[in-house]
Amino acid sequence: MSPRASSSPGESESSRYVPPSIVGEGYPLSDRQRGLLALVARLGRERFAPRATRYDREASFPFENYDDLRESGLLGICVPERYGGLGADYITYALVAAEMGRHCAATALTFNMHVCTTLWTGTLADDLDMTAEQRDEHERHRRLHFERIVKHSKIYAQPFSEANPAAASGKAPFGALARKAEGGWILNGEKIFASLAGAADYYGVLCTEDKPDRSLRDTLYLAVPAEVPGLTITGEWDPLGMRGTVSRTLLLQDVFVPHEAQLMPRGIYYQAATRWPHMFFTLAPTYMGIAQAAYDFTVQYLLGEVPGMPLKRRDSPTKQIAVAEMCIKLEQTRALFLRALADARVDPPKAARLRAYAAQYTVMENANEICRLAIRTCGGRSILKPLPLERLYRDSRCGSLMLPWTAEVCLERLGRETLYEPGESEA
Q1: What gap in Å lies between CA 278 and CA 264, rounded to an integer?
Q2: Domain tally for the chain?
Q3: What is the pTM of this model?
């Protein structure tokens, strides 16, 4: 980074803007959390950020970044230590994901799809009610999946969305169907916006057991191998933002998977979705990272600390006010984000559930607003491709569309669940 130019007599020319921790100053971190955040920050600065423009321009998957994640052991960040993983808890992972999103949002977002497979089947599942038989079955199955990740560096994706958004938002059963067969299940259906399409080794497909009177309680969560007969990847991927996720369409036509492909026992996913709502908040950290990155860039840009860019008019009251507005929005967003992470647990109280919706909405909307202010403040050069702001802006706009908690879903749930108790009729 180039030295900061001085605009007033006597001002030190050695001053630097030092980007703060993703959690801000004074937030209590364990030594383990500090170490993981430092590792991801180093990978982000030295490797992920320099590659981000190319992945965005090509709409290509960040394979090199995943090589770095393999080498660093981060693919197993939420695999419990007794299975050979790093054993990070929910909050630790969310902070790491936010730091990653600061450097390459597409990498952070796809990494979330992989990690959620281990988080949901690991510590989250341990909080859920299962019979002894279900617990034994789950233990056998997850040991196999965790071993693939830890020992063989396999990547798991999590195709969620379908053409009917009601399924992914929890209003209707998934349209992808699993029919019970000898030794396993036969799957048919379609998943759209399937991040890591063509890059994952296994796809954690959420589908509905094919039987009469299907309901959300019949949801199955099955790991489908990438090379299995009947699985195809179709369509182009040329979106506004998050281009490096390569979220193409998965088609499943009479795909057979064995019983051990189950990532959760039958019926347990529904219990998780209703009792552990913060499991759907793990997309927010990526956008928290984007918001921080946009603010950092703006301050560095106005100080003349962006290589190749001249000192900008930091003495302008208009730009000072814009930076102040960005700082306020960033700190408001961070405070609600961290509070929501602290709330995450099985069977959270109503206030915590509502706060999670509010936090999701705030992170997604404010990330884009901070990016908008950043572009307006930095001026015309900031929309050029060699600089990261225009990519951050495009990536940030995608956040409010992310199922299952889109901005609209959050507003609907926040209003309805404030005014109605579970099971109470709205008629």
Answers
A1: 18
A2: 3
A3: 0.94
